[in-house]
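TA notes, week 10

Several of you asked for a full example with nothing omitted. So below is the full record: structure tokens for the whole chain, then the designed sequence directly under it. When grading your own attempts, check the secondary structure regions first.
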């Protein structure tokens, strides 16, 4: 999706800079525009995507990491993930409804109830995609509050921005940022930080948790809504069968992209389980961490506080 021609309402919405930014946003060719042949990855012929500052670091994870079940160079993962979400952005909401039979709306509603969001608060929704949570947070914080919808993928961010502008959400900023560093944002800026179905796609999850801790105000909370590990073995086998057969087929029929939904199923299996993620949050200095399983552990909501 190109930014060459913005609608007047989009220009108006982005006229005022976010009060949470500590430095200007990076400039460059937007994600989704194909570059010169030298910038095409030789292995996959996937277009090169311009990513925000902070991308491509390997402080924690080393030179290689996983992309689904494959082992790849750490430096390549963010480009591959960018390609997946650029490909599925326009069909993202429809596919979520089909894949989860609409249950994802109940998962998000539960997460919002656990957020404790209040009038006048400042909220950062990381990997906010098409803006489902940000739209509700916009209403809950009211005119005296502020919400930042952030994503590393411009195609997803554009879809979310257009939806929220159409919905009249005038207290939302739209920021292209990398979850691993959150470089545009100053320390101690937000009362609530959320990331919904995005952490599993982050290469350096420990770095991302450190960054989330940094931008939270003392007393603030982190909320992670993510696919997790089913707690009943028979149910887990049935879930595997559905994930690795039905999801790619639906992706092919609806979005003309079976491979992205094959990656989705694999990325879920590679994501840390409930207890492991809780431990990672504690290692990032979050206190009073807990988690709540939803739909038999297919999804879990993790919560932690900055004291």
């Amino acid at each position: 999706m190109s930014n060459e021609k913005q609608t007047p309402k989009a220009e108006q919405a982005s006229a005022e800079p976010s009060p949470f930014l500590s430095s200007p946003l990076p400039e460059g060719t937007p994600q989704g525009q194909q570059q010169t042949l030298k910038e095409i990855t030789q292995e996959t012929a996937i277009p090169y995507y311009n990513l925000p500052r902070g991308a491509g670091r390997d402080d924690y994870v080393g030179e290689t990491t996983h992309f689904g079940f494959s082992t790849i160079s750490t430096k390549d993962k963010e480009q591959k993930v960018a390609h997946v979400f650029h490909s599925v952005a326009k069909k993202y909401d429809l596919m979520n409804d089909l894949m989860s039979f609409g249950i994802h709306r109940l998962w998000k509603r539960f997460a919002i109830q656990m957020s404790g969001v209040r009038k006048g608060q400042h909220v950062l929704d990381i990997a906010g995609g098409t803006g489902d949570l940000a739209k509700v947070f916009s209403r809950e914080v009211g005119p005296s509050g502020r919400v930042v919808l952030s994503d590393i993928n411009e195609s997803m961010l554009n879809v979310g921005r257009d939806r929220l502008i159409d919905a009249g959400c005038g207290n939302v900023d739209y920021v292209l940022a990398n979850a691993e560093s959150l470089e545009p944002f100053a320390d101690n800026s937000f009362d609530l930080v959320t990331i919904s179905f995005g952490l599993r796609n982050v290469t350096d999850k420990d770095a991302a948790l450190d960054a989330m801790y940094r931008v939270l105000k003392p007393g603030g909370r982190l909320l992670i809504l993510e696919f997790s590990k089913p707690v009943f073995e028979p149910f887990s086998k049935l879930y595997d069968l559905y994930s690795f057969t039905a999801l790619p087929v639906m992706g092919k029929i609806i979005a003309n992209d079976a491979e992205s939904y094959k990656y989705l199923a694999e990325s879920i299996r590679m994501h840390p389980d409930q207890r492991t993620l809780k431990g990672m949050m504690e290692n990032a200095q979050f206190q009073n961490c807990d988690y709540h399983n939803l739909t038999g552990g297919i999804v879990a909501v993790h919560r932690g506080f900055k004291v």
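The two ends are 41 Å apart (CA to CA). Use that as a sanity check on your answer.
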